[in-house]
Each structure stands twice: as structure tokens, then as C-alpha cells.
Amino acid sequence: MTTVRLPLFPLNSVLFPGLVLPLNVFEERYRAMMRELLKVPDEEQRQFAVVAIRDGREVAPSAPGLPDQTAQPEQGPAAGFGDDPLKAFHEVGCVADAATIREREDGGFEVLATGTTRVRLRSVDASGPFLTAELEPLEEQPGDEAGALAEGVLRAFRSYQKRLAGARERSLSTSAELPDEPSVVSYLVAAAAVLDTPTKQDLLEAPDTASRLREELKLLRTETAIIRNLPSLPATELTRGTTSLN
Questions:
Q1: How many CA atoms lie less than 13 Å away from 219 in the CB half-sphere?
Q2: Where is this region: Disordered (predicted)?
Q3: Domain check: are 163 and 112 in the same one?
Q4: Are 91 and 188 contained in the same domain?
């Protein structure tokens, strides 16, 4: 089993390969991570791993707790994630390649990264200024009938977008061509659909592209039927533009 060790950035969301991730970094543990990544030569990839939080907070408490105002906030790279950080995170995450890391005057960072490959979390190390993890890369297998499934998912996704836009009385952006490569379709739809984090995590963990597409087809049909019978939906910016892929 081949493994790699990378800095670990836990979030309350799921990152998929090919999708762009903007980050506003202000906590010291993640500032330290970005300072370390900036030491990597420009010609090399500045990579870190993103995992969805199962239990915990991506922002550590920074003020005395309630109801005990004398309680001191947790400190350190694993603050908010318990005694065993490995248990606080979902097992499968995604490597992010930071194309831009810009330091602000206040010491924080603005980061623009892109998901690249799925990885399985094997261990978490909290001994340094930020979390690092041993990760096993996961190869994406196409599965059976991925091409035909991708076509069906794209049709269902277009119908879903139209229903979603109509429910919010907004126009649907159709200026960008949707991809036709099955794995790219599966990740784009998983990221763009309005689904909760556990459902998105299940899609990320799918054993192959075809399995992910089959599940997405079921979800899109169900969600479209639900939207059809709703008079209105909460405001969102999802249908005002397309998800950015690199």
C-alpha cells in the first residue's frame, strides 16, 4: 500500500476532484500550514488534504466558553476535534493543489486550490503546529456502463437545474458546456447539487464512477420531484452560475 503524508485541512464540507476551493484562512494552525506550503518551490505542487468533519468544529473556540465564562478555549492543531482526531473526520477526502496562496496584512491568507485525487485517511498526527495525515491515494475506477449513465445523469441534472431555478424564480445560466467524461460528470453533479454533507460524502466514497452516477440519478430524480411540489425554496446562488472546473 502506497501512502503519502500531507498537511490536513478539515472542513464542514466535501471537496471533489476537479472542483475549485476558495479558502479564507485566519486560524493560527492553518496560517502555519500556509506558511509551510509557501516554502515549497514555485515549480512544485503545494498540496494539502481536505477531509469533511464528522464530529467537531473547523474553527476552534477563541473565547471563554458558556456557561462557564472562566473556561479557557482549546489550543493546538487538534483543537475542537477531541482526543483522537482520526475519529472526528470522514475516512475519505480529497487532495487539494493550491494554485494561489496570498498573505494578507493581518497575517491571514486567501487561498485558491483545486481538488485533484481522492485519498483514504490512515492516520492523523497532531504533534506539529498543524495537523498532518498519512493518506492512501484512491484510484478512480470507471465501473460498468459509466458512459451511458453519465448521459442520463446530465439529462436529469439539466431538468433538476431548471426546476431549481424555477422554484426560486431565477434565470438558469446555460452559457457553459457541461462535461461528458463520466468521472468529471459524477464529481461536478455531486458538488453542484443541493445535498447535505453526509450524502455528498457518500458520493465521494463511491467505489467507482458508475456507482456514483447511479446514485446521483436516483437523487436527482427524487430531488426534482420534491422541488416540483414545493411553492418556493430558500435563496441560494447555485443556479446563478456554473461550478468552476479546472
A1: 22
A2: 59-83
A3: no
A4: no
Enter the pTM of the model. Answer: 0.83
Nearest-angstrom CA–CA distance, 49 and 98? 10
119-161: per-residue pLDDT in tens?
A: 999 999 999 999 999 999 999 999 999 999 999 999 999 999 9
**Domains held by the chain: number:** 2
Inside any domain, residue 235: no
Q: What is the 3-state secondary structure of 120-178?
A: EEEEEECCCCCCEEEEEEECCCCCCCHHHHHHHHHHHHHHHHHHHHHHCCCCCCCCCCC
Cell of 125: 498526527
Residue among 105, 63, 87 nearest 10 (CA): 87
Each residue of 92-128: pLDDT tens digit? 999 999 999 999 999 999 999 999 999 999 999 999 9
191 & 157 share domain: yes
- Domain extent at residue 49: 4-56+78-137
